[in-house]
Amino acid sequence: MSGSVTISRRIEWDMAHRLGPRCTTKCKNLHGHRYVAIATLAADTTDDLGMVLDFGDAFRVMKAFVDGSLDHACIVDRGDADLLAFLIQQGDKRCEVEFPSTVENLCSWLAARFQEGFDTLPAAAGRGVQLVELRVFETPNCYADWKVQPAS
């Protein structure tokens, strides 16, 4: 039977955000979520053991970015000057981005950050290890999916 194998790794973190005054729902207010991301990886070739990538290597990449930039931080659109000024004045951990912090925007942005990390792994070198899908949950019932676009 033909097909391809992928692996998936999950990570969780706590983070605050707000969508600000342009938003007309309660999400305009500063609030937090327990985010969950599930990264799915594929490779052109598996390693000598038949692995796409060791789960521990995948987790280390994801954890390094999440712990360093997102966990217990406030992700803030640089266009939200009031919130940004407040966070700076308070000395609070923040992650500044150039977009409203919807789960859809976070999902595609996070996919690029994770892939940058996977690209640095010696175990992935020359094997075409690629993030092919990322699901990011903002709540247990609400999530966004990012999927790699096939080469045209």
UniProtKB/TrEMBL annotation:
Signal sequence coordinates: none
Keyword hit for Zinc: yes
Its EC number(s): 4.1.2.50
GO molecular function: 6-carboxytetrahydropterin synthase activity; metal ion binding
Keywords recorded for this protein, A-Z: Lyase, Metal-binding, Zinc
Gene3D superfamilies reported in the protein's UniProt record: 6-pyruvoyl tetrahydropterin synthase/QueD (3.30.479.10)
UniProt keyword Hydrolase present: no
Reaction(s) catalysed by this chain's protein: 7,8-dihydroneopterin 3'-triphosphate + H2O = 6-carboxy-5,6,7,8-tetrahydropterin + triphosphate + acetaldehyde + 2 H(+)
Family per similarity comment: Belongs to the PTPS family. QueD subfamily.
Name assigned to this protein: 6-carboxy-5,6,7,8-tetrahydropterin synthase
Protein species of origin: Saltatorellus ferox
Highest classification ranks of the organism: Bacteria, Pseudomonadati, Planctomycetota, Planctomycetia, Planctomycetia incertae sedis
Gene: queD
